[in-house]
Amino acid sequence: MKLPVYLYGHPVLRRESEPIDKTYPELSKLIDDMWACMYESEGVGLAAPQIGRNIKLIVIDASPVGDDFPECAGRKLTLINPELEVLDGEREVRSEGCLSLPGLSENVPRVEHIRLRWLDENFEPHEEEMSGFLARIVQHEYDHLIGKLYIDHISPIRKQLIKGKLNNIISGKTRCNYPVKYAPKKK
Fold first, then answer.
1. Which CATH number fits domain 5-181: 3.40.710.10, 3.90.45.10, 3.40.50.410, 3.30.70.2640?
2. pLDDT digits (tens, 9 = 90+) for 127-156
3. Which residues are catalytic?
4. pTM value?
5. Residues 63, 119, 27, 21: what is their CA dihedral angle, to the nearest 10 degrees?
């Protein structure tokens, strides 16, 4: 099944997600569909709210950026009910984009070191310290689970400067080369 990516302005992107367990309906199929959606959209990560589900589920394949960021080489993760802990308050500013905000990228400050606890697709527990760009990808996707987008981390002035582009996404004037779901029209 081709899942659409929900775009900026859709309320599902601003809701907090709920944990899931092994009884979640058709979880294996949903995970497979999320991988397919992420690859079709040419992303390196996809969180369940981006496909209209407010559940704590993320897929990440950081390997496409592994040449530039060695910590990402070969890293493919399914994260169920992740818990993120900041280990280092120092922030690095790097450009980020998002499948839910097509055509935009902004410089976003994020911490460089995190600890992550999660369950994999077999509900096996994992814990790992992550650094660099891999930590950035995880934080970006984790934000989706708590109703945040990367633009929430930019300055109010910068947000004002991109307001027209954000409004174009909300009004359906932005086109993508992957299936999308626009925000519901206001009456």
1. 3.90.45.10
2. 999 999 999 999 999 999 999 999 999 999
3. 141
4. 0.96
5. -160
